[in-house]
Amino acid sequence: MVVVKEIFSAIKADLETFFQNDPSVNSKLEIVLFSTSFKGLMLYRVYHELYKLNYKFLSMFLYYIAKRLYTMDIHPGAVIEKGIMIDHGFGVVIGSTAFVGSGTIIYHGVTLGARRIKRGKRHPTIGRNVFIGNHASILGNIKIGDFAKVGAHSVVLKNVPGRSTAVGNPARIIKRRECDDAI
Predict the structure, then answer these.
(1) Least confident span in 86-90, 126-130, 153-157
(2) pTM exceeds 0.90 for this model
(3) Which of 17, 38, 86, 149 is 20 to 30 Å from 24 at the Cα level?
(4) For residue 5, how many other CB atoms are within 10 A of its CB?
């Protein structure tokens, strides 16, 4: 029963984050009914909990279904805190050892991937309240700090400090903020 409460708590927080950050929607019901990326994230919440409970086959089966239905590849082992938004999730890839903090907004085509095939932690750790623009690739066991921004089409291969903006290929820091600007 605790697992079910945790899943619904995460879905409720995700729904609130979607509603607060998507000006094109008029209601939460609209998000639940018509947002494919929200549905993919909801299904991730279920198969991630199954993965943690060691129901690996069922988890991987639902993961496969989610990839086919919603064109988002979020590995069951990835840890995504509640209260995030994946907007237009088409082509989003989040690797098995990735971590995504609450309040983060991820746009379509984003990859949180590995740089090398190896065992252990090989995917990025994304802090809280991070903005990741469309088609950005954040690769390797690196950290993106809280309140950071990653520009569209950027390729991030090194740590990005909190409250910084990184753009380009390879990404470089173009701005550092002292306060908690809104994303």
Answers:
(1) 86-90
(2) yes
(3) 149
(4) 9
